[in-house]
Structures are given as C-alpha cells and as structure tokens.
Amino acid sequence: MHLLRSPQEAYRQVDFDARVAGANSRQLVSLCYEQLHCALGSALWGDEHGDPALKSRALTRALTALTALQMGIDPAATLAPALTQFYRAAHAALLDCVPHFDVDAVIRIRHDFAEVGQTLAAD
Prior knowledge:
The protein is an all-alpha fold.
C-alpha cells in the first residue's frame, strides 16, 4: 500500500491515518491546523532550497487541510462567518501561490493559523 512512497512519507501517512481514526471533532480541527502549519513550512523549505516538487506537494497538502477545515465549519456556530471568511482568504492566497510563490504571504498565513491553532488548543 505504501510501497511507492518514501519511508518517511509512508510513516507520516500511517501516523496521520491513526490519529484521524481515533479523533473527535475538536481533535480533527487541531490536526488540520497542525497539517496546514507543517505543510506551509515544507513549502517554504522547498522554495528556499530550490525543490519545486516538494513545494508543490506541500501546497497541495496545505490546500487539502484548509479545504477540510472549510468543510467542517458548523454553520450554526457563532464564529462560522468569521471562520468562513478567514479560511476563504487563506485558500485564495494559497491558490495564488501555486503559479507565483509568495514567501511573505505563506509566512503570514502560517503565522495566522499558528495563532488561531494555539488559541483553539488552549480552550
């Protein structure tokens, strides 16, 4: 099943799958924030080290995590409109980074999501 991947990628996927399988909704949100943060870090590293394939895979992973967050918004929640706007803006900015990577935008998005993720973890 994981034969076509690097050992590190296979381990990461197995770890991710196990964490998802045993998570409640709050833990899934935290996991998405974590995945987004790590993916954006990988995209920055790939850009800095001239690895466009890594940068592309990382942006795809970040967009996937962000899409999961968008899909998981409870429309009845008080923060739903603010989260929807926050996620949509980040999604649009990351899509803009696909053809023209904007380091500053990625750093800003990563920082913003780290702050929100820390706030969620503290609650």
